[in-house]
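Notes for week 9. Today we move from apo structures to complexes. The key idea is that a small molecule is not decoration. When we ask for a structure prediction with zinc ion present, the ligand SMILES becomes part of the input, just like the chain. The input block below holds both the sequence and the ligand string. Read it once before you look at the output, and try to guess where the molecule might sit.
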Amino acid sequence: MSTPGAGFRAEYACSEGCGFRTSLWEVIYRCPRCGSLLEVSHDLEALRAVPAAEWKRRFESRFGQSRLPHASGVWGKHEWVCPELPAGDIVSLGEGRVPLKPLPRMAKELGLGSLELKECGVSPTGSFKDWGMTVLVSAVKHLRARGVPLRAVACASTGDTSAALSAYCAAAGIPSVVFLPKDKVSLAQLVQPIANGARVLSLDTDFDGCMKLVQQVTEDRGLYLANSMNSLRIEGQKVVAIELCQDLGWEPPDWVVIPGGNLGNASALGKGFQMLHAMGLISRLPRLAVAQAERANPLVRSFRGGFSELEPMKAERTLASAIQIGNPVSFRRAVRMLRAFDGVVEDATESELANAAARADLEGTFTCPHTGVALAAVEKLVARKVIAPGASVAVVSTAHGLKFADFKVGYHRATLADVQSQRANPPLELPAELGAVREALASLG
Ligand SMILES: *Cc1c(COP(=O)(O)O)cnc(C)c1O
Ligand SMILES: [Zn+2]
């Protein structure tokens, strides 16, 4: 199998710019000099030696392939993701290459030029976490092939990271361990790692409590840490930005809106756009909006104080359970991105997020509550004229709604706490009689 990344290089660098650099094949998550997160730093000079038009041609031709791994939306960008990873060590389940779904009616009602959903949850395990996990687990496979003694890979999760980790590890035959907050993930999310054979630890704490424990446990260097503080995941997730621009004929939208919890994904998206810009594939940057649930909104609070220092908060229970995070690990890099993209931050109540999700569903999608948070943020930013009339807006849809069936059922039964269901569409219970059925259909169309 050929490795298109041959000839290009990437390594870890300190994300706060203290100058520390090391090989991607080190087991390391933070800068040993200053404690900051690391980032993957690409040799942009070498990449720039290939003209922008040639990159576009290569990326587009791989969209037409059907064989993994390079038919994967992530590995179709192999050179930009993890160039030195041999193609034979790639662990892919066919992630990426997801639809950009227009919501023309909602766009028209809001007075937008366009509103589109990048459906990142149309993916092997049903969330965008697959985009990053393919890179991390491939790197672990490669590390083990190089003789690094890694027994297993571990993560703390609000549900989707653990599903992705366990599926990719199962595909690679590598043991995985997931730390879940008891009773705070959906049934579908809980059953995925169970089915994929992970060691599932259900802990009587919240996500932040799980995160703390997994960091302590992975100080044992035989256990590899798979949370998004691990910047290998960011390299896969940044491809969302690249694929979005590719979908739009290499013209970014005016705004990109994304739900944020730990804030790794918002940082990844920014990194993708910056790389596209640096490489000359796009000529301007979009503006960025990060959306949080009002009950878990530390970034919103900081933003209102002019990006004041993070004050970790106790995240309250929200329907947007995957972003119920009070102490986001990637806070600093997200703030850096928001500054670079003239970004804004908005939050949504339980009612707002649920109604926004239901509104989009009426155009044929099936949105998760987190995507509902982002859509509610669009509604509010349009109302406040932060997003101008006529703007083109892309929303990153982070998971498939099928993982959150209880949320949907509760919404349409109008039984969700703190939600006024404005678009409830409960089934009509009827006797099995023609007259009753005819009557029920009389008002259709
Ligand atoms: C993980 C996740 C998020 C938040 O991503 P962060 O990188 O933690 O900000 C949003 N939506 C869904 C569905 C997720 O699984
Ligand atoms: Zn440093």
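The longest helix spans residues 129-145.
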